[in-house]
Write a structure and sequence with these properties.
61 residues, CsbD, mainly alpha, YjbJ_sf, rod-shaped
Length: 61
C-alpha cells in the first residue's frame, strides 16, 4: 500500500463519520461535507491503486 491508498481510506472513513454526525444532529452542511470527504477519499484511493498498478508493471520489466 502506498500513502495515497492509506490517506484515501482514512478520508473515506472520516467522511462516513462526519455524515453520520450530521444525520444525528440534523446538520445538512456536515452531512454534505461528509459525503464530499468520502468522494475525495475514494478518488485518492483510486489514484493510489493506479500508482501501485503502474509500479508493479514497471517492476515486471
Amino acid at each position: 500500500m502506498n500513502k495515497d491508498q492509506v490517506k484515501g481510506v482514512v478520508d473515506n472513513a472520516k467522511g462516513r463519520i462526519k455524515e453520520a454526525a450530521g444525520d444525528l444532529t440534523g446538520n445538512r452542511q456536515m452531512q454534505q461535507e461528509g459525503r464530499a470527504d468520502q468522494v475525495g477519499g475514494t478518488v485518492r484511493k483510486n489514484v493510489g491503486d493506479a500508482k501501485e498498478t503502474v509500479k508493479r508493471g514497471i517492476d515486471k520489466l
